[in-house]
Amino acid sequence: MVGPERIFKTAWFAKASKKARIFDDELCAAVRQVMLGQADDLGGGVFKKRLGKNLYRSLILTKGHRRWVYAYLFAKKDRANIEEDELVSFRALAALYARKTDEDFAKEVQLKELVEICL
Questions:
Q1: What is the tally of helices (H) and strands (E) in the chain?
Q2: Nearest to 51 by CA among 26, 68, 79
Q3: Of 73, 54, 64, which is closest to residue 12 (Cα–Cα)?
Q4: What are phi and psi of 82, to 5 degrees?
């Protein structure tokens, strides 16, 4: 691994998690659990992790386990899972994040498209 891992959430995820009352400390702990294999590996750099006392599911994107991006959140009561075409799109997004440089991430943070957590 090159350098320490960094953890982000998209602007959309930040709003959704705030509404669901899921805070950064829980998100940071959840990524550590994913690193230990305690999540559903959906392939292609997409992981599904339970949050909010098992009431919510999050999708976390990573390639190379260096940068982790919380991309999607849904309530378990609202839907059982994501559709196959959505999974294909999230895998493509994970690959896109894998190609980005630290400078790309810094710019997205500056533009408030991403929020870095667990600093």
A1: 4, 6
A2: 26
A3: 73
A4: -90, 160
